[in-house]
Amino acid sequence: MMRARNGPETWGLVSRALHWLMAAGLLAMLPFGLWLARTQPSLGTLWLYGLHKSLGVMLLVLVLLRLVWHRLSPPPVMLSEGVAPWQLRLAATSHRALYALMLAVPLAGWSASSATGIDTVLFGRWTLPRIAPVSEAWDRRGFALHLWLSVALAVLVAIHVAGALWRHWGHRDATLRRMLGWA
Ligand code: HEM
Ligand code: HEM
Predict the structure, then answer these.
(1) Residue 126 β-bridge partners
(2) Where does the record locate the signal sequence feature (predicted)?
């Protein structure tokens, strides 16, 4: 029942855990980041920047693991009975775009952070390399990019969630249940 690998019609434990862990993490990181950017940095809030960066890099690692896992254990085919072709195309395209943004958002945050000249230190322990030159222009543009990619991510997530809820309550198929592991 509780299989690790994906089946032809089911999501395994690994994919489900990655999906929900990342969903929770990303949904928390969006307001967290907005709050950080609107707060005057001070010694008292410095650790929160460190926490945001550390969690963000963890999410980057998780999405890489997720992409590797897709190769090792391909996802089940989308349920399509009675669903309009444009909706299936929208779902497939938005899944690809969500992946692109799950990669691009933390990479933009990391490169913008690199440009500030302040080290990115994971959980106060591991210093990551700089992936952009220290420069005020990179810093400014990098954080602007980090913001706008995050906005795009939030919009796509809203569409994605609307689609999932529609499948559940409107179309009444097993799409949401099988991602929850209830089908
Ligand atoms: C998927 C993960 C991430 C999400 C969803 C996320 C989201 C956000 C958002 C929405 C903002 C507000 C931007 C603004 O209003 O200007 C922000 C700010 C920030 N992010 Fe991220 N972020 C992520 C990962 C990262 C990573 C990996 C780093 C660095 C290594 C980082 C560093 C920062 C910093 C330093 C700020 C504050 C910018 C400022 O004070 O202007 N973020 N983040
Ligand atoms: C930040 C939040 C989220 C992101 C980035 C995200 C991303 C994704 C991606 C990329 C897929 C494609 C399959 C995969 O690679 O795992 C997927 C599948 C799915 N997501 Fe999300 N998701 C998020 C939140 C949610 C939420 C809150 C719900 C429920 C209301 C949900 C419901 C589903 C369902 C039901 C599937 C399975 C689709 C299928 O069986 O074909 N997701 N999600």
Answers:
(1) 122
(2) none
